[in-house]
Recover the amino acids of this structure.
């Protein structure tokens, strides 16, 4: 891929005989390219710093010369630590150690910085190149799902079942719980730190460039209040707030009759609780 592909736009649709029947969308993110270039240079410098220490150590050993295997072990630990072995050429022999950078290897990797390719078999009339990239980026929602299922929110594990049907039922219930949570988060977005315009903006924003929060989301995070003055919550703290809404079942003994009078008494709703029930379209007692 040549950078000239991205002169007009940061994505370009290409084709290859190696992928028959597939569309390839090449993307270029200059911000990601700069980050990777800087990170690689930092790792290269850190590797060279430790390799220089090995050189000085080998040169000091004039009486008991360091053998080739020992030098190789020391250099190998450094190379494995920073994963930069492909960019260095090591010269090791008894009593000698030196290294040089593989400039061609570094250059080839540099030319790929910030570039990636999305593959799809969907036809152009069903899925545009921009939407293909947006769909790929939606994978972070799937990753968030698995983090939620394995975290403290849904807690899919441990599974203390032995029969296959019970394990399947356990996973199904956890998926159903997440499905309910997903819909609740959408409905309760005005009370949460979530960006309410994120879904709508996905349809029109640059598919390659990093997503930027809306002005409203920035205001919520800085003020920590909604437009109507209510405190902003995370999903967890909002559930804790709802947990304060309590029903007390009271039984009153009547002296003149043998039967007791039973009533349900509810705590008074706070402003946040009222707003939550309204957003969820729930009736309250």
């Amino acid at each position: 891929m040549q950078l000239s592909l991205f002169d007009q736009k940061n994505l370009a649709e290409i084709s290859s005989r190696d992928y028959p029947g597939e569309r390839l969308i090449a993307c270029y993110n200059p911000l990601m390219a700069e980050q990777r270039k800087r990170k690689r240079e930092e790792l290269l410098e850190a590797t060279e710093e430790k390799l220089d220490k090995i050189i000085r150590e080998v040169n000091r050993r004039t009486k008991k010369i360091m053998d080739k295997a020992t030098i190789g072990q020391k250099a190998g630990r450094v190379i494995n630590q920073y994963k930069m072995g492909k960019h260095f050429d090591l010269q090791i022999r008894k009593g000698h150690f030196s290294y040089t950078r593989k400039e061609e290897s570094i250059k080839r990797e540099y030319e790929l910085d910030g570039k990636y390719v999305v593959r799809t078999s969907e036809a152009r009339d069903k899925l545009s190149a921009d939407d293909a990239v947006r769909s790929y980026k939606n994978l972070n929602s799937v990753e968030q799902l698995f983090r939620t299922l394995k975290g403290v929110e849904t807690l899919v594990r441990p599974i203390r079942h032995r029969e296959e049907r019970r394990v399947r039922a356990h996973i199904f219930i956890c998926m159903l719980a997440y499905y309910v949570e997903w819909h609740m988060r959408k409905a309760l977005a005005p009370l949460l730190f979530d960006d309410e315009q994120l879904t709508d903006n996905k349809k029109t924003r640059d598919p390659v460039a990093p997503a930027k929060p809306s002005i409203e989301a920035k205001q919520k995070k800085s003020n920590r209040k909604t437009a109507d003055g209510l405190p902003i919550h995370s999903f967890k703290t909002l559930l804790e707030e709802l947990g304060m809404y309590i029903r007390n079942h009271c039984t009153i003994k009547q002296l003149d009759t043998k039967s007791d009078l039973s009533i349900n008494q509810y705590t008074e709703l706070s402003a946040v609780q009222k707003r939550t029930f309204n957003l969820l379209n729930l009736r309250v007692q």
About this structure: The mean pLDDT is 85.
